[in-house]
Amino acid sequence: MNEIALKESDISKLKKYPLDGIWNSESIIYYYKKDDDMNSILIKKLLLTDTQKVNKKIETIKRIRDSELSEYKELILPEDIITVGGVKSGFTIREVVDSITLGEILENRKIPNSFKLDILKRIGELIRKVQCQKQEFYFGDLHEYNFLINKDNEISIIDLDSASVSKKRLVISTYMVMDYKTHNIPKYRVKNYVNSYPSINADNYSYNTMVLNFLAGDRLHKLSYDEYFDYIKYLYEVGIIPSEMRDIYINHYTDKKNKLVVDYLDMVPTSYERGCYNVYKALQKINKKD
Fold it and tell me: How many domains is the chain built from?
């Protein structure tokens, strides 16, 4: 990776890149320049003040770029290192044009459920394909806003400086942080309420949680154990998920290895409104009155 030296005054002249629908708390994205094909090259300037953490991100990206993972066009990897005032401060990345996040797609009621399930299935297959490579690699922070879908329905994965090529590098996983139920389960290797050590179990849990939240139309990380297990049982009983998916979701909170639910998405009905969490809660209230 080459280094591009800039000054703070150079950065201040750049236009910020809009991040509508994308979670981002540790960096600012700027338009930088156009390449020879007139595609935008962006700068991701990290807000981290810990030099060691920045260097670890850079080392991770270098190792990914030097591995067979660099051949995956779906992985949007940083290209050059940006220094500001002589300090390594970020990267250049290529803009994924004409795209929206997976989160925006899943939240859009005008988009058919069949299309949403197909995209989730393709993402699950991509995750498994990457996991099968010889290179040790963990996504670390899988959530709906780190996937982009373009006008040709091609999938891209962004924010890969949050990934890891070592089991020893701490990461911040959105769904690990939000779900306190994972914090005392050894297979997730959670160090504290913010950081965890990456693992296949954690990546599979995060993908499966994206699917579950989509089916529920809600975010279920705040549920107690009993509420969670009762809801999973309900989804199975009303025919929204098959027994195989039910068992995978139950195993999230056991010592068994996590599997991806992707193989069973074809068994999920495209009309799944009865499985929405608010419908489930309404039915619970009616049953209590009876």
Answer: 2
Mean pLDDT of all residues in the chain?
90
Does residue 165 come out as left (phi exceeding 0), alpha (psi in the -120 to 50 range) or beta? Answer: alpha
Question: From the CB of residue 61, how many other CB atoms can be counted at a distance below 10 Å?
Answer: 20
Neighbours of 236 (CB within 10 A): 19
Please tell me whether residues 119 and 236 are part of one structural domain.
Answer: yes
Q: What CATH number is given to the structural domain containing 52? A: 3.30.200.20
Tens of pLDDT, residue by residue over 36-66, are 767 789 999 988 777 888 888 888 889 888 8
Q: Where are the beta strands (DSSP E) in 69-124?
A: 81-84, 87-94, 99-101
With a pLDDT cut of 70, the percent of the chain lying above it is 97
Given strand 147-150, what is the order of strands in its sheet? Answer: 99-101, 147-150, 155-157
Task: Look at the alpha carbons of 61, 65, 71, 77 in this order and tell me if their dihedral is positive or negative.
Answer: positive
Which residues, including other chains, have CB under 8 Å from residue 112's CB and lie 6 or more apart? 270
| Residue 123 near residue 59 (C-beta atoms within 8 A) | no
Please, what sign has the CA dihedral across residues 268, 269, 273, 275? negative
End-to-end CA distance of the chain: 66
Q: Are residues 145 and 285 in the same domain?
A: yes
- In this structure, are 104 and 56 located in the same domain? no
